[in-house]
Amino acid sequence: MSNTDIEIVVEDPTAPEADSPQMASVRVVDVVVCLLLLALALTLGYDNWRTGAGWESTGPQPGYFPFYLSIILGGASLYGLVAAFLSRREASESFVTQAQLRRVMAVFVPTVLFCLATQFLGLYVASFLLISCFMRLVGKIAWWKSLLTAFVFTAAMFVTFDIAFDVIMPKGPLEAALGR
Amino acid sequence: MEALGLLMHGFAVLLTWKTLLLMMTGLVLGIFVGVLPGLGGPNGVAILLPLTFTMDPTSAIVMLSCIYWGALFGGAITSILFNIPGEAWSVATTFDGYPMAQQGRAAEALTAAFTSSFIGSLVAVMLITFLAPMISSFALRFGPPEFFAVYLLTFCSFVGLGREAKHKTVISMSLGLLLAGIGMDTVSGQLRMTFDSAELLRGVNFLVAVIGLFGISEILLTMEERLALRGHAAGISMRVVLSVWKDLPKYWVTLFRSSFIGCWLGITPGGAIAASFMGYNLAKRFSKDRDSFGKGRIEGVFAPETAAHASGTAALLPMLALGIPGSGTAAILLGGLMVWGLNPGPLLFVEHKDFVWGLIASMYLGNVVGLVLVLTTVPIFASVLRVPFAAVAPMIVVSCAIGAYAIQNAIFDIWLMLGFGVVGYVFKKIGIPLAPFTLALVLGNRAEDAFRLSMIGAGGDLKVFWSNGLVGSITTLAIVLLFWPVIDKAFSSVTRMVRPAKA
């Protein structure tokens, strides 16, 4: 292969190592998911049975469909539970390695914090904080670049949604202080 | 030729500066979405949907469908230059596209990909132009039983013909149908599965679920991978474009075959992914020089790209004519139609002529404009990949949150989106398919309404689903498809028993 015309190169210094230890096998997760689905099916099934899952002269009662769907969901999860226990392939397959989990959490935890911040500070402030901190702390990008990118993006969003298209987003104390 | 007249009217609706500008914006956004890792056609359309809430429906659908075309074009750029399929349906394009780029023929491969995408969608749009009005005028005679039978057919064909483990498809579909039922029951007005929570009263919004399932979960999945990449330079000169176009007639068989496969698989819920692989494999099988495939043969780019785009476009046919989406993105567009207060289905052709023909005309125009746009701007888009993912990921998260919130102005929906993100991540990793879930969520209420209305009409008698030839044959076909794997097995064991007896 000729490397002469390779022009775009992007490195990934924090890539997850390939030999990282496995945190859970696909089988374990599959079993847990099936159990959760089973619990959900039982809860919803009970609720619909209470609503009324019978058959009137004009057809099914409101709870009829959801009730039988819960039974189907429960049955399929039970089957899945047994299938997962018996599957050798799933037992050997890795669901997530330690290094991968660390990277996934590096996105997931900030996202949860962002949702919390949106509730109290409004969406625009929260997104400025998310973008700047994420770029700096996870991406190791220079502070000035992170802050500038975050500001430009947030401002562009504000102009597009709030001013141009009139789509109202949750707002917090900062917007109130600025009179918007 | 009533269709042609209406189509011309559609073009007249579109040819204003404002619409053309929206079209360009949509295409550019779409190509971005297609090129960036962790985003794809359905996510892009779902995230950008809120932008269109304040537009009139025609402008909105023009912009959204252009985002979709853009995403289809964008997927090809990364597969050829970086060997990274931006979308699952461009995997087959990498087989011959990347070797071509390695040999320094990237421009040729890109031109081939864009041109064949254009041809594929064009064939499918022509099919829609002439077939959709016919199907919808036929479907106007449908009553609730017929509609329920068609919905049943869609659900059953997913379970019976899907390649995933059957119980996982069933889990995904029943979960989707259950979530669709949360909230107020539309027939009796009673509350279901709300557990006295005011937030659940509204029900689970389909678009919120989609943004979480595809947008958020895709970011989590992308983070697991190594994100380093090396790519080839791209610049397309007019000379290359013309030389590829001059050779085009030589490959008419491949192009025609792939378009046909794409249209067929797009209408039935097979999807663009299956179509692109099938197009590639058939081109290889019918070729005289089979071994040269995979080493940079231009036909290997033509075949999958034509099929993928034909199928992506044809998926809109059942959505427009019957209100049943043929693909994930079509399902999201359907969700959009409902937000704008349009009722998808055959009545659309009667009540909202301007809208339907505007949309169809925008498919023609969008593809022409898109072709010109990608051919001229490839280098810019290729360099988008230089932007570090650490900057892209939080921006996608913010866009997802904006999208989820804007649909019903509810903070609860942002949390719901986050929950669906986790669900999508786990489901994808343990092999529970998400397509049946989305389909069930968007069609669940309509299917139940159709069933209960037909029950009220028939006085609770199930025989109504076999009351005439039309509804009877659809219902029967649905049940046959549901048990297809069993029937198929029985058939093959019977033939195996018969054959040795003959021999």
Task: Tell me what you see in this structure.
The complex is a heterodimer of chains A (180) and B (503). With 180 residues, chain A is mainly alpha-helical. Chain A folds into two domains: 24-95; 97-178, no CATH class. In chain A, 68% of the residues lie in helices and 9% in strands. Chain A is flat. The termini of chain A are far apart. With 503 residues, chain B is mainly α. Chain B has one domain. Chain B is 75% helix and 2% strand. Chain B is built from 23 helices and three strands. Chain B has helices at 2-14, 17-35, 41-48, 57-82, 91-102, 106-139, 144-161, 166-181, 198-201, 206-224, 238-247, 252-267, 271-286, 299-314, 316-322, 328-339, 348-351, 353-383, 389-408, 411-430, 435-458, 469-482, 484-502, and strands at 183-184, 191-192, 229-232. A two-stranded antiparallel ribbon of chain B has the order 1-2. In chain B, a hairpin with a 6-residue loop joins β1 and β2. Chain B is globular. The termini of chain B are far apart. The model of chain B has no long low-confidence stretch (mean pLDDT 82). Chains A and B meet through β1, α1, β3, β4 and α2 of A and α8, β2, α10, β3 and α19 of B. β1 of chain A pairs antiparallel with β3 of chain B.
